[in-house]
Write a structure and sequence with these properties.
The protein is of the alpha/beta class and about 270 residues long. It folds into two domains: about 15-125, Rossmann fold (3-Layer(aba) Sandwich), CATH 3.40.50; about 130-265, Nucleotidyltransferase, domain 5, CATH 3.30.420. Helix content is about 30%, strand content about 25%. The chain is built from nine helices and twelve strands. It has helices spanning about 20-30, 45-55, 65-75, 110-120, 150-160, 180-190, 200-205, 215-220, 225-235, and strands at about 5, 15-20, 40, 60-65, 85-90, 95-100, 120-125, 130-140, 170-175, 195-200, 245-255, 255-265. It has a six-stranded mixed sheet. Strands 3-2-4-5-6-7 form a six-stranded mixed sheet, sandwiched between helices.
Length: about 270
């Protein structure tokens, strides 16, 4: 059973989101929750020079405009699919997401699916397609000496309540403080899944995304929640892009343990 501590995930190029209309500006603000560090530009002047500069500097682009505008603006600075950053075009109402550059090599196709799933939109992908699917990671916290049986009961009950099975999980995760916990290793062996352990400093990066912060847990572990933060951290490290995972099962608990499940979309070979 592979048991490892995963550090920082590989960073993807930064994102610039460009809007031209007021509905587009509102959509750009919504999209920012997927990429919190994204640069938002509304009606930049001069438009073509601005997006060409961002493109040539390697930034991924989300252009909320007509495809024709995007194509005519970027055509003079295109190089090849191995150098050009990914570019998405969306209509101002967020109904369609079109990857127009670097679909495979730059990850635009997968990025388009992620954005479309977030918006409830249609990804319009015209190139040869790779199969993508939801990847699920379970975060687990437990008391010292927690027995395997208690962990399995919590896991199976929680998954069944949400129409999921053990086989739907890709990985388990917990805090570094629990690396020597026998029950967690036994759980990983039983499920035939890798288990990853993250230091508290990594889990604290997810504080603002927890369903509930616990000061008691913080005093004991150095982070405000183990199960949810570990699930999110693990899910985001299953793939090679910078989109956020989402909690599909917030923290559940019994007398011995806590459990949460996060989801992200990625290629089957990830």
């Amino acid at each position: 059973m592979a048991i490892e501590n995963v550090g920082k995930k590989r960073s993807m190029p930064p994102v610039t989101i460009v809007s031209l209309t007021e509905p587009g500006r509102a959509l750009a603000e919504r999209l920012r929750s997927l990429a919190p560090d994204a640069e938002l530009l509304h009606r930049p002047q001069p438009f073509q020079d601005t997006i060409r500069h961002r493109f040539l500097s390697g930034r991924r682009l989300v252009l909320l405009c007509a495809v024709g505008i995007a194509v005519r603006s970027l055509a003079p600075v295109l190089r090849d699919k191995y150098q050009d950053p990914a570019v998405l075009v969306l209509d101002e109402h967020g109904r369609f997401v079109v990857p127009i550059l670097s679909g495979h090599e730059g990850g635009a196709n997968e990025w388009a699916r992620q954005v479309a799933d977030f918006l409830g939109a249609q990804a319009v992908i015209t190139g040869a397609q790779r199969y993508t699917h939801p990847l699920l990671a379970a975060g687990v916290g437990c008391n010292r000496g927690c027995p395997l049986e208690s962990l399995l009961v919590l896991l199976d009950r929680t998954l069944a309540e949400h129409g999921l099975r053990r086989d739907d999980l890709r990985a388990l995760a917990s805090i570094e403080l629990k690396r020597d916990e026998p029950g967690l290793h036994q759980l990983a062996e039983t499920l035939n899944l890798p288990i990853h352990f993250y230091p508290a400093v990594v889990l604290r990066e997810y504080d603002d995304r927890l369903s509930r912060k616990s000061e008691i847990v913080f005093r004991e572990t150095g982070c405000h929640g183990v199960a949810e933060a570990a699930a999110l951290a693990c899910a985001e490290r299953l793939v090679d892009h910078d989109f956020r995972a989402e909690l599909i099962i917030p923290k559940r608990k019994n007398t011995d343990a806590t459990l949460a499940v996060a989801r992200i979309y990625g290629n089957c070979e990830d």
